[in-house]
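Exam review. A common question shows you a sequence with its structure tokens and asks you to describe the fold in words. Practice with the pair below. Do the first one on your own.
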Amino acid sequence: MAKIDLVRTYRGAALGKIWLFAKPAVYILVFWFALSFGIRSASDVNGKPFLLWLACGVFPWFYMSDIITSGSDIYHRYPYLVNRLKFPLSLISTFYSLSLLIVLGCMMLFTIIVCLMLRIPLGVHLVQLPLVLALMFLFWTAWSMMLSPLSAISKDFANLLKTLSTPFFWVSGILFEIGKWPQWARLVMAFNPVSWSVEAVRDCFVYDRWFWSDPYSFLPFVCVLLMFALLALHNHHRLYMEVPDVI
């Protein structure tokens, strides 16, 4: 079903799968140009090219952005599945998140290939990337499962969630280094799932460290993940019978 969702998204486009990479690539190039030649703050990070650091933030962001905007109101995207009462609603969030994760995985593979071609050194910490992607998948699937029933019942709530994309982008450290902040500020940002996801991917490529090595960053994320998982189960069991009536 995740594969079908990918085919459905780009059906009728002559360039097909190229569009999976076109939008993120354009964003990265625009930000790189603006920061390098406009603000002139695009210096190397931990001895790695700034463009790699930027890609490790923008690529995961597109996965999370789609979940925040579309995944938070996923039942309106697939009303024909919702109205079939025997179809498990939780599966809709799962295969939609999985389809987006496949795209992100391809982007990460592309990043690795480019690094090898340009002889950018990649350390042993890259082996943790699959685990980072798995944790991101668990959290953002739980996010979709928790909020989609509420969005289905209230259009105002759905519209409110869609406005979160822009604030999340600008305050989550996608375009700036959180590591330079004071300890208390980094602790607050550790409860931001977007910030943690971006930093964890950069740990694999740029910072060369294990993402669990800093408990002040990892433990808050685990707490938020468990809370969202419990709320997702609660909302699903309480509202799944009402959702088909309002879609």
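Now try the second one, then compare your answer with the model answer below.
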Amino acid sequence: MTDRCVLVDTDTGVDDALALLTVAHHPGTEIVGVGTAFGNCTERQAARNALTVLSVAGLHDVPVCIGQPRPGPPPATSSPHGLDGLGDRGYRPPPGVYPAPESAVDQLLRVAEDRPGAVDLLCLGPLANIAAAVTRDPRLLTRYRSVTVMGGMGTASRRGVEAAVQPQFLGKGDTNTNHDPGAATVVAAVPGQITWVGMNVTGRLRLAWADLVARSAVGKTATFVRDITEDYHRYCTSTYRAENPIYTAHDSVAAAVMLDPAVVLAADDAQPRVRHEDGRAAVWGVIPVRGPAHRFVTDLDYGSIGARIAATLDADIPRSGAR
């Protein structure tokens, strides 16, 4: 029985892959489509990556649609996700599996029209596709049951608090917004049940690399995730100056919020604004609100989210008595 239908918009890097698997393995959830954006790699490579990840989850009929191209030159620095977005481990989609002919923007519009109020939209990358779609239909996001964005930095009033708790917080930045601040500006101005799950909360969940290695000894999902995360975890360990090796799962945190809103322990209604500081762009929630109010998450049940990720990694492990 399907209890939840999800449309995912993603730039399919390492943590996007884990988020896709997290959604795919959630009981009663159907991924009705995937749209791809540039960011961790090109939008076309992101489509190939999404098809690869879906095949790991045993999903072979989900339409994957290619989205908008990057509105400018590629980043000058290399991505910690590798040149191909999945750690440069040589993964490819299964033979004969290709992206759908429909564009990601058309898919966003069609799903909302065909199934108004019945589909949750999960945005894991730069918001180029979402912005292009709402430019054609300004009330588009009100036709989704919910919209969850992995982006932003939280509410501006908590900037100092977050920076003190996470010394790398401001330097790490709002990567998805920085890839396309114009698109984020468009989305920030539209109405809808929109929740921003920003770096203020996603960066707090740091998963032990040793645990992933141990789980990969007995499960193919964990083996795949460990393989693509091999280099990314070194980047995470260095960036967060962790004493022991870690990896982060920013997009899986956003996926967990969409799948189970009860994991949100605190949130503020605020007006999203794109601010440019120190050569980077970021979305901050501003109070008081003068325009469409969106929700900005400020605290989460990390124990529950960590358990959900662990269950995803173990989802393919044969249970006692299974045949």
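Model answer, second protein: DSSP finds 13 helices and eleven strands in the chain. Residues 319-323 have pLDDT under 50 and may be disordered. Full marks require stating both points clearly.
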